[in-house]
């Protein structure tokens, strides 16, 4: 499998499978082409023999420069449960940490229990925010401190 930064051309690879990967739910409106144009250095695609395996779209916040945001992550259903999402997250953490970020945030809907479980498994804090996306549209907010922890040495 080959992991690389996304390009504008990758938009079509992703958008053509997006709804299928989400079980037929209409998702394409949530991932406009602009993400593939403007956030290439912090977004990644995984291919295996030209078959799209996974992708992660993320960026550094312009408002809070020490924070990064993961906007969208998808793994081909045939490749789920093999660590691809975790690998993409670790790659994203390393990239945005090198850009000065110490916090990563993302959101999902409360019904996306798979996402909630995954984020908990990689030590994101989880909180429900009511009316986050307008009245009646609650969201689960995830947050993770990605600062490198310095090991302390006991000199006693």
Q: Name the assembly state.
A: single chain
Helix content: 25-40%
Major beta-sheet overview: 7 strands, mixed
Give the overall pLDDT as a whole number: 94
What is the succession of H and E elements?
EHHEEEHEHEE
Instruction: Please tally the β strands and state the result.
Output: 7
Low-confidence stretches: none
Given helix and strand content, the structural type is alpha+beta
Q: Could you give the order of strands across the largest sheet?
A: 1-2-3-4-5-7-6
Total of helices: 4
Beta strand %: 25-35%
Rg over CA atoms, rounded to whole Å, is: 16 Å
Based on Cα principal axes, name the global outline: globular
Euclidean distance between termini CA atoms: 48 Å
Characterise the protein shown here.
It is a single chain. The protein contains four helices and seven strands. With 156 residues, it is an alpha+beta fold. A seven-stranded mixed sheet has the order 1-2-3-4-5-7-6. β2 and β3 form a beta hairpin. The longest helix is centred in the middle third of the chain and has 15 residues. The radius of gyration is 16 Å and the shape is globular. The protein starts with a strand and ends in an 11-residue tail after the last strand.
């Amino acid at each position: 499998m080959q992991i690389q930064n996304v390009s504008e051309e990758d938009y079509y690879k992703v958008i053509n499978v997006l709804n299928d990967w989400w079980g037929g739910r209409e998702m394409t409106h949530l991932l406009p082409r602009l993400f593939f144009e403007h956030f290439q250095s912090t977004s990644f695609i995984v291919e295996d023999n030209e078959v799209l395996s996974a992708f992660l779209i993320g960026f550094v916040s312009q408002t809070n420069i020490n924070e990064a945001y993961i906007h969208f992550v998808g793994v081909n259903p045939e490749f789920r449960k093999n660590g691809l999402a975790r690998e993409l997250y670790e790659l994203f953490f390393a990239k945005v940490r090198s850009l000065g970020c110490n916090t990563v945030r993302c959101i999902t809907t409360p019904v996306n229990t798979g996402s909630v479980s995954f984020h908990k498994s990689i030590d994101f804090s989880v909180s429900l925010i009511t009316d986050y996306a307008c009245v009646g549209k609650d969201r689960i907010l995830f947050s993770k401190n990605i600062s490198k922890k310095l090991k302390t040495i006991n000199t006693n």
